[in-house]
Structures are given as structure tokens and as C-alpha cells.
Amino acid sequence: MMNTKNIFRGLITILWLAFAVSSCESYNEELLDGIGNTREFSPIGLTAKIRNSTTVELDWGVKADENPDHYVVEFSADDPEFKTIFKTINVTPSQLPVQVALEGETTYSIRVKSVSAAGLEDSKWSITTATTLSEQIFFPIKDEEIQATSVTLRWTPNSNVTHILLQPGNLNHTITAEEKVAGVAVVTGLTPETNYDVTLKNGTKTRGTLQFTSGVDLTNGIIVNPGDDLNAKIAQASAGSRLLLMPGNFQTTGEVILNKTLIIRGVRPENRPILNVKFTINSGLVNLSLMDLELKGTGLNNAAVVTVSGASSNYGDILITKCAIHDYTRALIAANASNSKVASFTVDNSIVKSVNTNAGADFIDFRNSHVASIVLKNSTFDSCSTSRDFVRVDGVVPANGGFSGTGLKTTILIQNCTLYNVSNLTAPKRILYVRFLDNSSTVMNTLIVSTSAIYTNHAATETPAFSKNYYYTAESFMDATIPLNKVDATGVTANPQFVDAATGNFKVQNQSMIDNNIGDPRWLK
Known about the structure:
The protein is mostly beta strands. The protein has four helices and 38 strands. A hairpin with a 3-residue loop joins strand 9 (about 165) and strand 10.
């Protein structure tokens, strides 16, 4: 009986030892593998970011004690099991991060392994994925090739393309063999002054997209030539008319008085008419649109671009879009007309430079007049109001000719704008100096550079809502030590790497800002 027990115990001991030895061998293999004695380290921290729609940027960490000869990177298109390898490249550590051009509208599985320089086994694969966007083989449309009913479209010659779709209207242009080789097609049948979305297709795959606005319909409006008397043309026009200004330097200078609803626009965006004028708005005007104009204030004494003058009036929407405005000594808009209201003031897709240079006003300056909405978007403001506040809305009570405290409200939106050297010379000047009793402000996707300004330190100005704003040499916007400063706690400090700010070229070279759509979109392309 004792012998049987001893034999049984011995068998258990032998089995336990065998299991322990086996476990230790397995553990040692993993340990040796992990410390790199038998094979290279696997790449760690592998990331894949899409750049420019169809290019993937790969990066991973390389430890100081690693010395791989190179890495092998394999791509599989819409195939997570890597049954078919679409592309293979070798990458050295010095080439990281590496960018690889791929095809559009495809989900790529990507794996990377290390290859030893010391004869060790290759590492195990590290795996990630990336989905490319639509390709972009379209070239930018030349402004002079956009007409009222046709457009010339260009793409990389001899590319595989089949047809072009335009919306609205569901226009379908079949690409001929000659157009395919040349990379050029003229599409007709457009509706004038219509915003079009264009898609270049190869069968079902998208190879490029564009947006444009078709040209001005010259049959719908009053044509005004540079030699005409602009004031006389305005006087003759009925309310609601469109004045279509041809390219050139207009002879009319000085004050232009407006007392009726008008659209004043240039005919050719690439060759704007040049006006050396200031606009004064009097009672009778409801809406005003200034479009595709170059406005210059050179030689005009103490001139604001737009002045709201008529008292006790209700004005509608004042719009400035696709304009270049420069060299005015006073405000972009000045509104001190008592007991008057403006529904909205909007600046869109414009470049404004050296406006409000004499320190006699604020840049957007509403005092006795109430404004319900101020919108600044997709625009650049360069060296404006350097010694004064940027947006001012006063809280004038009814007894003094205003509307503060009556239940009315002022809202302000600054979105996708680039502000450079604004409100900078006297600290701290404010981007938002809003004293109207009920107010709200939002600043988003905006880039502010080279200024000592703050957003606001006034008790009546509600703390703005902030989202995705970037700053450079503009520390005060996030400096909580400044008394009463209402800071952007979510802001990011980064150098936009402008091409040449001194000459007005604010093209951004900081890839993170480009990816996050920060600032005036014209500088992100």
C-alpha cells in the first residue's frame, strides 16, 4: 500500500515538473522574443493619417537601442486579411514619417515589420488601417474660364476618366477620347450665377471634385462702365436693381450716397472694378450687397467704408462678399444713427487690409444704432484697427437714442477668419468690445497672429463660445493673469508658417492647421 502511494506521488511530481519546464520554455521564448534576442522589435505606436485625400502618412516609434536595417510596409486594398498585396515599400528609420500615395475611396489594411541589420529574425507585423478620400486630379478652375453658361475644366492629362457630373441640374458630360488625352473639357448648358458642385468620375469612382459659381448674367442688371458717373447710375436705378460694374478703374470718387436697396457687383471676379469711394447709407435703403469689388480709400479724408447715417430707420442686411478692401482711415462700418436698427452686417470671402488706421474709430463700430447680427467668415483682416478695438457694439439706452435693455440682442460670429496684426499697438485692445445689454459671441476655426489684443475684459461682454482656434505671437488670448480677461481655454498655440505675411501671403504650411481647417480657407489650399 505504501509503495503504491509513493509511486502515485512520484508520478504527480514528474508530471508537475514536466509542466513547469514546458511553461518555463514557453515563457523564456516570449521573454527572449520580447527583449529582441531572437528577432527584431515590432514597430510600436503605428499611426496612419490621411494627407491630401489620397496620401497616407505613416509613423511609428523607434527606440534608441533599436537598430533595424529597414522596415517592410505592405498595403492591401479593401482586404483586411492581406490576401492580395497592393503595394510594398521599404522604409529606413531616417525616412519617418513617410508619405505614400494611394488610390482614392479605398480602405487599406497596412502592416509593418522590422528587418534586422544583425541577422535576427524579422519582427512580427504591426497592423493599422486607413481609408482614403476621393482623389483630386482636377486642376483649379481659372476665373477667366468661367462664363455665364459654360466652364472649362482641366485635369491631369491622359487620366482614366469617363464623365463629369454637375449639380444642380444633374448635368452629365461624357468625356471624349480627345478630351481624356488633353485633360480638358468645356461644359455648356449652365445657369448663370449658380453655385455648382462638379465631380470627375471614372465609372463609379470619383477622381476629382470642384466647386464654382457660374458667371454673371449681363442681361439681368444695369451695366456700368469705368467712365460712367456711378452716382448718376445709382440715382437712375430703381430700388432692388443690380448694378453690374465692368472691369477697370472707375472715375467716380468720394462719397456715394445710397437710399434704396441695391446690389453693386463686379462682373469678373478675377478682374474686379476698382472704386475709390466711401458709401453712406440713408433712410430708404433696406438691403445692400457689395460683391466682387476692389474698394480703396486712398486720398479720402477720414473715410469709413460704409457709414449708416439715416436716423430712426430700419435697415435690413448689409453684405460685403468676395471683395478686396484697403487703405481706409476709418471704420469698415460706422453706425451712430440714433434710433436705427440694422438686421445684419456680414463680411464673407473677402480680404481687408489697412482699414481704420487713424485711431479715430473702431473697426466694426456700432454705437447708437443697434445691430442684431455681425458675421465675419472666410475672410482675412490684415493690419486693421491697429490702435483700436476690432468689434465694438455700445450699450446705448433708449433715452440716448439706442436700444440696449429693450429685449433686443446682438449676436457675433467669427468663423474661419485669419486676423493678422489687428488691434495691436495699444494693449490691451479687444477683439470683442460689446456693451449692448443682451449679447452672445462665437469664435471658431479662426487663426489670430501677431497681436497683443485680448478678446474682452468688459463685464457686459458675455464670455464667447470658443472652438478650434489657433494663436501665434498672440499670447494674451489665453493669459488668465490679465485682469478680467475672458480667455480661450481651448485655444492652441502654433506657428502657421505663413509663406510671407509681410506681402500679404498668408498661405499656411502648418499641416495640423490645414487638417483642422483653421483660418481663412483661401490660405489652406
